[in-house]
Amino acid sequence: MAVIGGGWAGLAAAVNATRHGHRVTLYEMAAHLGGRAREVSHNGFALDNGQHILIGAYGETLRMMALVGADVDALLLRMPLRVTYPDGKGLRLPSGPPMLAFAWAVLNYPDWCWSEKLSLLRTATQWVARRFRCDGSLTVAQLTGHLPPAVREELLDPLCVAALNTPATQASASVFLRVLRDALFSGPGSADLLLPRRRLSALWPDPAARWLQANGAMLRISHRVERLLPDGTSWQVDGEPFDGVVLACTAVEAVRLTQSCAPGWSAQAHALHYEPIVTVYACSLGARLPEPMMALYSADAEPAQFVFDLGQIAGLDSILAFVISGAAPWVARGTETTVNATLTQGRKALGQYLVAPLEALRVTTEKRATFLCTPALHRPAMRVLPGLWAAGDYVAGPYPATLEGAIRAGLAASDAMA
């Protein structure tokens, strides 16, 4: 079988299919594997093309990492979920059963009054009673609109944009509740943050590639597939026959390859809208934040929602990564404006932790980082045609565009081939 695309979904499909006994050929148009979650180099040292976090509930991702020989404990810094701000506010979950930890964290949230805390706990209890289901037409803003502004602005809205890369006013409430259910209420450790100690390529793409090569799969890197044609009960990929194909490339590439053979599916994939993510890497010699990852107050003139201290996480001392999710307005303003606004925001919010000037190092912009996760969104189906399956974080499924969503999509498509 053929797998077209060497991102996280494609590698999951290739590894799973190889384990099922298929002879796999994987095509990747870029010179590297990993897609939108990979290592990039800058002036002789390694960064990522964006900051990604995992959580303890990402069971399939962690299982697949271990399967290909990645040392999960060494590669990931595990810590209880925290959404903390430089001024001391924030949610800090202790260790223990997630539901009890969440209740404790809410009750001990600094500066919230009792009515604000109890309002959130009552609402969370209602979500649990309804099994985290809601009207599929609701946005997150509509779902949470009755809650006090501080609860929404300091906790729920940042969680929404971090999980769905979609502003609360546009984001699907049903998908948001699914993420909360799995993160906060699916067992011990499910809500833990897992922060990469190494570059993203070391977590999954590199060990998966080594495993595939060791188990007989063929990797064709820097090969953009030009033609995908049905051939009776099989398929031709650039003239080479295969008994089945998994489309694990970007939605844009999948649209191109299926325009003639599956125009309806192609049109649905083409109709997806996207939201960018911008990461501003900056350096301040000697900087060290109170937490490896901190939330920031985001506003019209302050773009970033989170900042990562890469010295604490990955040994890149003095380097901070500012993440701007839902970044379409800032992409429209231009890179220079975005960088200047981010540095101004960082100096203001983190001034007490900066012992040297904060200067920009690199900016990465993923213009199609994720699909816009809106209510009642019709995502393209996994099955395209007989013998042709799609895998990617944009394919129909319960998860937003996350690493876990990509891995699960790859596993599901390759299982369907078996």
Proportion of beta-strand residues: 15-25%
**Order of adjacent strands in the largest pleated sheet:** 10-2-1-14-21-20
Quaternary structure of the protein: single chain
Query: What radius of gyration results from the CA coordinates?
Result: 21 Å
Structural class: alpha+beta
Helix content: 25-40%
Total strands: 21
Cα distance, first to last residue?
10 Å
Low-confidence stretches: none
CATH architecture descriptor of the largest domain: 3-Layer(bba) Sandwich
| Count of domain modules | 3
Q: What is the CATH level 1 assignment of the largest domain?
A: Alpha Beta
In CATH, the homologous superfamily of the largest domain goes by the name FAD/NAD(P)-binding domain
Total helices: the number is 16
Q: What's the shape? A: globular
Q: Give me the CATH fold name of the largest domain.
A: FAD/NAD(P)-binding domain
Summarize the structure.
The protein is an alpha+beta fold and 418 residues long.
Task: Give a structural overview.
The chain is an alpha+beta fold. The protein folds into three domains: 2-73 and 199-272 and 375-417, FAD/NAD(P)-binding domain, CATH 3.50.50; 81-191, no CATH class; 274-371, Polyamine Oxidase, Chain A, domain 2 (Alpha-Beta Complex), CATH 3.90.660.10. Helices cover 37% and strands 22% of the residues. It has 16 helices and 21 strands. The protein has helices spanning 8-19, 59-67, 72-75, 98-107, 114-129, 140-144, 149-164, 173-184, 200-203, 205-214, 251-258, 263-270, 310-314, 328-333, 335-350, 403-417, and strands at 2-4, 25-28, 39-42, 45-48, 54-55, 76-79, 82-84, 90-92, 193-196, 218-221, 228-231, 234-237, 240-242, 245-247, 274-283, 293-295, 306-309, 319-324, 359-371, 383-385, 388-390. The strands form six sheets. Strands 10-2-1-14-21-20 form a six-stranded mixed beta sheet, with helices on one face. A hairpin with a 2-residue loop joins strand 11 (228-231) and strand 12 (234-237). Helix 11 (251-258) runs antiparallel to helix 12 (263-270). The radius of gyration is 21 Å and the shape is globular. The N and C termini lie close together (10 Å).
